[in-house]
Amino acid sequence: MTTLLDVRDVSKRFTMGGIFGRKTVDAVMDANFSLSAENPEIFTIIGESGSGKTTLARMILGLEDPSEGEILFRGKRVSRHGGRAEKLAFMSQVQPVFQNPFEAFNPLKKIERYLESTARRFLQTRDKAVIDRAMDEALQKVGLSLKEVRGRFPHEMSGGQLQRCAIARALIPNPPLLIADEPVSMVDASLRMSIVNLLKSLRDDLKVSVIYITHDLATAYYISNRLIIMQRGRIVEMGDARTVLDNPQHPYSKLLKASVLSTDDAGDGKLATDPGMVKAAGDLVGQAGKLVARPDGREVRVYG
Ligand SMILES: Nc1ncnc2c1ncn2[C@@H]1O[C@H](COP(=O)(O)OP(=O)(O)OP(=O)(O)O)[C@@H](O)[C@H]1O
Predict the structure, then answer these.
(1) Protein residues whose CB sits closer than 6 Å to any atom of ligand 1
(2) What CATH number was assigned to the domain covering residues 3-93+175-303?
């Protein structure tokens, strides 16, 4: 297997405050997983608020350096430092899609301006015909066209359409990997599934791998190949998405699943939790993980 992304023993500790009020947060602890270059997949990172999902994504994007461990993309170490050309080459391979498309676009700028500057930057050309073609191709991949988008400002589009434009922008350099951090949580409920299906078709039709970060177990179940469940910085369970979600092994994963089924808040993407159960699950985290063989022959790794 050729490895696309290799996350090896990665931890991130933030230190805040001065010498007297110093505080540290272990945002990510000992994360390990890898994605294959040959088999594009949707790899989901799930966990409630503050569990370290975004920090892990920022390290994969080279926006933060790990405190320990290393992240390799196609065998090369990902780092916040490095020259402009090196960064551009990396960014053409790994592109982010953020949560709020309305924040990703300046309300005073036409959408095509963003697409244009991305195309100019990655294709290293000023040729208008080449740039227009690249923009149109990327927009077609998300079910839009340059004709539909041209001349429009962000507020003239729905959240779903704007998120498609953000995904189109990310696709301009033809990256093999997208990191989508809660890409549907700010999109109208009625349009969410169309974005989720779009991620699925990027994987199936364009062979793009997607790291999908979410609170939402339902969409995770629907599109993911594999997933990891994070709690307070640690991966507590990892495996085939349906195997894990059909029959979670770790107490925290069980709790997440139970919370979705039992609270009204789940629709907002926030999971209500019982503090007693969270503590019980938390106490188990930090013990060595073990592979659990399931009767159907599949395996999940369970920590605790
Ligand atoms: N730059 C930073 N400085 C200090 N602490 C940070 C920083 N970034 C994140 N943290 C802390 O690290 C922990 C993990 O945060 P992170 O944003 O990665 O979680 P998350 O799972 O993405 O949460 P959410 O779903 O709310 O976005 C939290 O306790 C957060 O407060």
Answers:
(1) 14, 16, 25, 27, 47, 49-55
(2) 3.40.50.300
